[in-house]
Amino acid sequence: MTDTTLNLLQDLVTNAIKAGADAADAVAVDARSKSVSWREGNLEDVDGSEGEDIGLRVMIGKKQAMVSTSDRRPAALKALVERTITMSKAVPEDAYCGLAPEDRLHTGPMAELDLFDSTEVSAEQLTDLAREAEDATRAVEGVTNSSGAGASASSWAISLVTSHGFSGHYQGSSFSISSSAVAGEGTGMERDYEFTSARHFSDLESASWVGTEAGERAVKRLGAAKMASGQMPVVYDPRWSKSFLNHLSGAINGGSIARKSSFLQDKMGEQIFAPGITIIDDPLKMRGLSSRMFDGEGVSVHKCAIVEDGILQTWMLNSATARQLGLEVTGHASRGTSSAPGISHSNLYMAPGELSPSELIADIKDGVYITELIGMGVNGVTGDYSRGAAGFRIRNGELAEPVSEFTIAGNLKEMFRHLVPASDLSFRYGINAPTLRVEGMTVAGAG
Fold first, then answer.
1. pLDDT in tens, 271-290
2. Any residues with CB less than 8 A from the CB of 367 and at least 6 apart, and which?
3. How many CB atoms neighbour CB 309 within 10 A?
4. Residue 447 has pLDDT above 60, yes or no
5. What pLDDT was estimated at residue 101?
6. Average pLDDT over residues 343-369
7. Which residues form the Metalloprotease TldD/E central domain (predicted)?
8. Mean pLDDT, to the nearest integer, of 301-330?
9. Which residues are paired to 390 by β-bridges?
10. Among residues 304, 301, 298, which one has the least CA distance to residue 249?
11. Cα 232 from Cα 409, distance rounded (Å)
12. Cα(125)–Cα(283) distance, rounded to whole angstroms?
């Protein structure tokens, strides 16, 4: 299948050049998935999908066009080339379009990252896992209902060929189990969830663990009080501390920098976090949920420090934004079949600190521990930050009563500088961070 797909893409690129293109690339994404939803003791839904999409991009001078198809018959592929060539002649010029620099393309064998698990998980097995997760949720004392449980299995393969010599392919898989719980009744009702996901089926947490965690999280939130307003330390649970890295990756995206729409616009090489803070992007992590062998333009990828000792080291660039900014590509191009290459991180994480989570909060007389964030009140241009939240009060260094319906506010530039990580980093998501403490945030409550 691999050779067949690569040969097909090579033929597309070759035929595009023969038809008048100056440069071209072609990408194929083959994917399949199945998922099961289980709710209140009954099978709610079974979904399955398969896709074999191909995208062709051609460049004539400084004009480019992209067209995609799921039809791999010879006549359809011939029409794909003709349509893409015609479109590329009709669109406006793009001064920065083009293939990635040839000297930055991946060469040699692909890394052994163990991203694909060939385990076949049937719909019946997924149903059993979802049932087990919900049963465990409903068994937790204090849980009054379930919002449902689910399990899924998927696999995919990415193939890319360019007219200047790159040809590459890799495949991956993903498995997950989730459960959502409801505790309490009426206006005192609370909800929470838990999930596990992994490249390999054997790396998943057990369905019963997922269900129990979801139920216990919901029960702990019962009786939530209102927060008083004021300035205080805010501590983020790892489930939500990773959101800081989402904000960072958006701010250092080459597109944002080129448009001059980032609050970190002029901060390259400057101290944006406290000394000692390190943030890594590692596309070559074994079994990593966001690992990749090469980027969306065929550029070689490598582990790199985005922030080192608190200092911003790099933007995330594809070839178009690198040209616009007069910089080198960084291996962060992403690619679909119907659009020009975008930009994305891989396995992005913040290195752990030295204090345990309990030590991190031990000296907090009055603060709040965040277990849920609501809304997206973040301004990527100014860094202004305001989000609804729920969690637990911190009193005299200990977690106290649950609290809800309050807002936390600040500015990301200041929040980054006053951020302290705990030692509990674990790799459960594509983006990961340990428990984080941020000083001097404004809390607006109703109490």
1. 999 999 999 999 999 999 99
2. 232, 233, 234, 235, 361, 393, 394
3. 13
4. no
5. 97
6. 97
7. 117-222
8. 98
9. 372
10. 304
11. 11
12. 31
Q: How confident is the model at residue 1 (pLDDT cuts 50, 70, 90)?
A: low
- Is the CB of residue 150 less than 8 Å from the CB of residue 177? yes
Residue 388: per-residue pLDDT: 95
Number of Cα atoms under 13 Å in the Cβ half of residue 175: 24
Q: What type of residue sits at position 332? A: H
What architecture (CATH level 2) is domain 2-218?
Answer: 2-Layer Sandwich (3.30)
Judge contact between 367 and 234, C-beta under 8 A.
yes
Q: How many CA atoms lie within 13 A of 167 on its CB side?
A: 15
How many Cβ atoms sit within 10 Å of the Cβ of residue 15? 19
Tell me phi and psi for residue 301, to 5 degrees: -115, 155
Res 251 pLDDT > 60: yes
- State the SS3 of the chain: CHHHHHHHHHHHHHHHHHCCCCEEEEEEEEEEEEEEEEECCEEEEEEEEEEEEEEEEEEECCEEEEEEECCCCHHHHHHHHHHHHHHHHHCCCCCCCCCCCHHHECCCCCCCCCCCCCCCCCHHHHHHHHHHHHHHHHCCCCEEEEEEEEEEEEEEEEEEEECCCCEEEEEEEEEEEEEEEEECCHHHCEEEEEEEEECCHHHCCCHHHHHHHHHHHHHHCCCCEECCCEEEEEEECHHHHCHHHHHHHHHCEHHHHHCCCCCCCCCCCCECCCCCCCEEECCCCCCCCCCCCECCCCEECCCEEEEECCEECCCECCHHHHHHHCCCCCCCEECCCCCCCEECCCCEEECCCCCCHHHHHCCCCEEEEEEEEECCCECCCCCEEEEEEEEEEEECCEEEEEEEEEEEEEEHHHHHHCEEECCCCCCCCCEECCCEEEEEEEEECCC
Question: pLDDT for 203-212, tens place per residue?
Answer: 999 999 999 9
Domain map of the chain by residue range?
2-218, 224-447
pLDDT for 445 beyond 90: no
Sign, CA torsion 196/199/201/202: negative
